[in-house]
Each structure stands twice: as C-alpha cells, then as structure tokens.
Amino acid sequence: MPEEDVAAFVTIARVQKVQGRVGEVLADLHTDFPERFAERRRLLAWDGNGRHELRLEEFWPHKGGMVLKFEGVDSIEAAQALVGLEIQIPAAERAELEEGAFYISELLGCQVTAGGSEIGAVADVKFGAGSAPLLIVNGDGGKEWMIPFVESFICKLDVKGKRIDMQLPEGMLELDAPLGAGKKAAAKSKGKR
To answer: What are the domain boundaries of the chain?
Structure first.
C-alpha cells in the first residue's frame, strides 16, 4: 500500500493488550463516538510504517475501553500481533460535529500567537497533566512550550485558518523557556521584591 498523507486518517483506538482466548483485544478509545463501531466494520490498523485493513466482527465496552474482535484473528498469538497498533478510519468518515466544535487533530499545525507575538506551531496536544489539555508548541530554534488550552486564554481560534490567538498570564512563557532564559527571568523577579 503506498504511503498516504497522515492527516487523511484519524486514530479512534489503540490496542493495549490481548483480551480473551479467541483473538479479542482490549483497546483504549480515542473517540467520543464509540457507538459508531456498530456501523464501522472496515477499520485500518496503523503500525507506524503502513496500514492494513481489518474487518470488525464484534465489539463491547470493557473497563473504560473497548474489546474488539476482528475477522481472521482467532488466537492469542494472532491477537498479540495487534498489540500497540492504532485503529484508524479515513478522516472523511469522522462524525459530523455541531457548529463551533472541532477535532483535537485540527489544532495540529495551528500557529499560536500571544500578545501579538508569534510563539510557534502546535505540534501535539497532551492530556492528563491537569484539568486542561496542553498545547505542545514548537517555536524557532527548537524551543518548545506547553500551554494550557483553556477558554480564558483564547482570544480567537480559527482551525480552518490554522491560527490560535491567545492572551497568556504574564510570565507563563518564561516557565517553559530554555534554562538560561528561565534563570534570567527568576533573577529579574527576585530584584523586584
């Protein structure tokens, strides 16, 4: 299969482990629409190098994840070969969202500005570090910032135009600045006390 644009596919689950004796696997969900497995029988497995088609036979929720049973995967050994794979669909098959809503993947590549200054582009979105997801923003010279993606920081969000204008609390960018810049900022703040 020729390599296709990564943005043309969306990961909806990741296989975590074998679950059962006849080829079932337990997957972490990366979708807010698990009920759509009922109509999705053709899925794609991505191993980081390529995709291959899987046909879904059965599925059921289990301990916050989803047990998946695929055609032709009928043993523990065959199921083990799926562990770690991402289960994907073509992006064109995603569920329609209500007006004003967007997919997290649409944030990737957005240019972030704060106070009129360019910070960089969103490279990733991380969850689990707090109540808000973190935008991982890559700037010039290999700089990386982790910026909470909270409504109160967002002035304007244009996912189609790939732009996020933010108003950040004073000093927030210095928290994630390279070591030398952080020391300078700390020295300045000590002098003001």
So the answer is: 7-93, 105-176
